[in-house]
Design brief:
Layout (H helix, E strand, L loop, with lengths): L21 E3 L5 E3 H8 L11 E2 L30 H11 L8
Antiparallel strand pairs: 1-2, 1-3
Length: 102
């Protein structure tokens, strides 16, 4: 089950469970859309994967107790700003490779 982390790992922008700005990689590294596009260039600094929009967990119990009230979002903040120099070197190796080929 997704943690639904509360903030962008780079800029620490709030990303509540209903946020349409949250992006995650397959390891659930969480960043805002602005950082993914402008800073990371769709390359996760932690694993090298690409990003996808984070799904929204329903706030209402529509069916089978599958909702935020039963499975709340994480409150643990992972603020790990990306080092621009290090990420530039990482990007040089990976950004020309499509995420599905990395």
């Amino acid at each position: 089950m997704l943690e639904l982390r509360p903030t962008c790992e780079h800029c620490n922008k709030a990303l509540p469970p209903e946020s349409l700005d949250a992006r995650i990689c397959s390891y659930e590294c969480t960043f805002c859309v602005t950082c993914v596009e402008r800073v990371l260039e769709n390359v996760c600094p932690n694993c090298g994967g690409g990003f996808a929009p984070r799904p929204i967990r329903p706030a209402t119990n529509w069916h089978g107790d599958n909702f935020l009230g039963k499975d709340p979002a994480s409150t643990t903040i992972k603020h790990r700003p990306v080092d621009p120099t290090s990420h530039a070197r990482f990007l040089a190796r990976l950004k020309s490779i499509p995420p599905d080929k990395r």
